[in-house]
Write a structure and sequence with these properties.
Helices cover about 90% and strands about 0% of the residues. Helix 1 runs antiparallel to helix 3. It is rod-shaped. Its main location: Golgi.
C-alpha cells in the first residue's frame, strides 16, 4: 500500500469520525440555550466540554494528515496523478469546511452562554432588590410599631395625670369645705383665705397649661 493510499484512508476515517463527533457536539451544545441550572444538574456541561476537546483534537489530526497529503502533491520525483490531486484538493476543502463549522458552533455556544449568564445576573439582581425592598418594609413597619407604642405610653401617662388632677381636685374641694367652716367661725380671715384661694387657682391653671403644652409637644414630635 502506497503512502498516499494510507493517508487517504486515514483522512476518510478521521473525516467520518469528526463528522459524527461534530454532530453530537452541536446537538449537545444546543441545550445551553435552556436554563443553565438544568444543564449543570444533568451533567450536560461536562459532556459538552469533553466533546469539544475531542472534536478539536480530531480536527488537528485531520489538518496534519492533509498537510502530509499536500506535501505528496508537490513531490517532483513521484508526481501524483490527476485523480490523486483531485482527492487531495477535496480532502483540503472538507477540512476547511469542518474548521468553519466548528468555529461557528463554538461561537454560537459562547453566545448562548453569555446570554444565560446575563439572564442569571438579572434574576439575581431582581431577587436582591426584592429582598432589600422586603427588609425596608419590615424596618418601616417596626418604626411604625414603635411609634404606636410610644403614643400609647404617652396617652397612658396623660390619663394617669388626669386621674391625679381629679384626686387633687377632690382633696382641694374637701379643704375648701373645711376652710369655709373655719371662715364662718373666724371673722377677719376671709380676705386672707380669698387671696390664697385665688393664688392656688392661678397656680393650678399654670400647671395645667404647662402639662397640656408638654403633651401637645410630645404628640407633635411623634407624628
Amino acid at each position: 500500500m502506497s503512502t498516499y493510499d494510507a493517508l487517504h484512508r486515514q483522512c476518510r476515517t478521521l473525516e467520518s469520525l469528526f463528522d459524527t463527533k461534530l454532530t453530537s457536539y452541536s446537538r449537545l451544545a444546543s441545550t445551553i440555550t435552556r436554563n443553565q441550572e438544568d444543564i449543570e444538574a444533568g451533567g450536560s456541561s461536562e459532556r459538552w466540554k469533553d466533546l469539544e476537546i475531542e472534536v478539536e483534537e480530531l480536527l488537528q489530526k485531520l489538518g496534519e494528515i492533509n498537510d502530509e497529503m499536500s506535501a505528496l502533491s508537490n513531490d517532483m520525483d513521484n508526481p501524483p496523478s490527476q485523480s490523486m490531486l483531485r482527492a487531495i484538493q477535496r480532502h483540503r476543502e472538507v477540512y476547511q469546511d469542518y474548521t468553519r463549522e466548528l468555529r461557528r458552533t463554538k461561537t454560537n455556544v459562547q453566545t448562548a452562554l453569555d446570554q444565560t449568564n446575563l439572564l442569571s445576573g438579572v434574576r439575581n439582581d431582581i431577587d436582591a432588590y426584592k429582598s432589600s425592598a422586603a427588609d425596608s418594609l419590615l424596618a418601616e413597619r417596626g418604626h411604625i410599631d414603635n411609634s404606636h407604642q410610644m403614643t400609647d405610653d404617652i396617652l397612658g401617662q396623660a390619663y394617669e395625670t388626669r386621674s391625679e388632677f381629679a384626686r387633687q381636685r377632690s382633696t382641694i374641694a374637701g379643704i375648701n369645705t373645711r376652710m369655709t367652716g373655719v371662715i364662718t367661725t373666724l371673722p377677719g380671715v376671709n380676705n386672707l383665705l380669698s387671696m390664697i384661694k385665688t393664688r392656688r387657682r392661678r397656680d393650678s391653671v399654670i400647671v395645667g397649661c404647662l402639662i397640656g403644652l408638654g403633651v401637645m409637644l410630645l404628640l407633635m414630635y411623634i407624628f
